[in-house]
Amino acid sequence: MTDHRLAPDVEETAEAIASMEIRGAATIAAGAAEALGTQAREAEADSPAAFRASMRAAARRLRETRPTAVSLPNALRYVLRRMDGRNVDALRESVTDAVAEFVAQLDRAQEDLGRVGANRLADGDTVMTHCHSTDALACIEAAVEGGKEIEAIVKETRPRNQGHITAEQLRGMGVPVTLIVDSAARRYLNEADHVLVGADSIAADGGVINKIGTSGLAVNARERGVPIMTAAQTIKLHPETLTGHTVEIEMRDEAEVIDPETRAGIGEIAVENPAFDVTPPRYMDAIVTEHGQFPPESIVTLMRELFGEGAAEPWAEP
Ligand SMILES: O=C(COP(=O)(O)O)[C@H](O)[C@H](O)COP(=O)(O)O
């Protein structure tokens, strides 16, 4: 295999995604696209073929960091598909333009879906959240900016407590927040008017892949009669599921669940740490995207329209 030098920023971004310094599906997508932009600027290629090969190598390095959020390969596909030109300068420019276009589109999509999601929230509503999703928060932000008073019940979201980030950002919007442990969710659903979550991937059958605990929350919400919606830009649609593939669920370090010393004190135990789960479409009321809201079962139509070309891997060695 040829050795293609990666820009230091590509390596740093890959490490930051793997260690979750850069996390959340939309943020990962933007980070990966921007790293491709740096690779394009810094690649020391003396031929178009060498330039293309170095871009593919950078994309492969970024791709291998986290397996579940499809926004990552979708971002890489978006940029690599637009790489075009007869010489290195033209190729470089096409990548730079594609990255800028992609990031602008992400921001626009989030704003647009925020307005759609906000329409589902009424003045005085209390919303229960899980994990930290910029798409979900965009809905609350749009509702608040529209003059609605919203309160939030925020699940801490073990093992990494991303609920704390959600709580902080909601406070920044002036939203009153009650933080609860995950196991208190069913009790507090009595006080919630909506459950609002994000997504890492959405499958062709409308299944929503999101932070572990989402599916249990959805089942409890249905039992309590509380509507649950997923806020997800279409970059979260998983094209490979159109052809029957399943979404890989990331298994993370056991030390996130229990520190090694405490574990050793307990004795020999198995520890498992899946980062995500799948909520079946029948437990989800709506998927809110920048193209409007959809019942989960109908998302496949949008997926075919936007990703009909399938799931090519433009980063593979030819
Ligand atoms: O599950 C998570 C984050 O998991 P992790 O912390 O393991 O990355 C978020 O709900 C989705 O990624 C959506 O986020 P966004 O709406 O910001 O794309």
Automatic annotation (TrEMBL):
Biological process according to GO: pentose catabolic process
Keyword field: Carbohydrate metabolism, Isomerase
Active-site residues per Swiss-Prot or TrEMBL entry: 131, 200
EC number of this enzyme: 5.3.1.29
InterPro entries listed in its UniProt record: IF-2B-related, IF_2B-like_C, Initiation_fac_2B_a/b/d, M1Pi_N, NagB/RpiA_transferase-like, R15Pi
Gene3D superfamilies: translation initiation factor eif-2b, domain 1 (1.20.120.420), Translation initiation factor eif-2b, domain 2 (3.40.50.10470)
Residues binding substrate: 23-26, 66, 210-211, 236
Keyword Isomerase assigned: yes
A GO molecular-function descriptor: ribose 1,5-bisphosphate isomerase activity
Pfam families to which the protein is assigned, alphabetical: IF-2B (PF01008)
The organism's place on the tree of life at top rank: Archaea
Substrates-to-products reaction catalysed: alpha-D-ribose 1,5-bisphosphate = D-ribulose 1,5-bisphosphate
Transmembrane annotation, as ranges: none
Note: Reaction proceeds via a cis-phosphoenolate intermediate.
Family listed: Belongs to the eIF-2B alpha/beta/delta subunits family. R15P isomerase subfamily.
NCBIfam families per record: eIF-2B_rel, ribulose_e2b2
PANTHER family: METHYLTHIORIBOSE-1-PHOSPHATE ISOMERASE, RIBOSE 1,5-BISPHOSPHATE ISOMERASE
Record's function text: Catalyzes the isomerization of ribose 1,5-bisphosphate (R15P) to ribulose 1,5-bisphosphate (RuBP).
UniProt name for this protein: Ribose 1,5-bisphosphate isomerase
Source organism (scientific name): Halorubrum glutamatedens
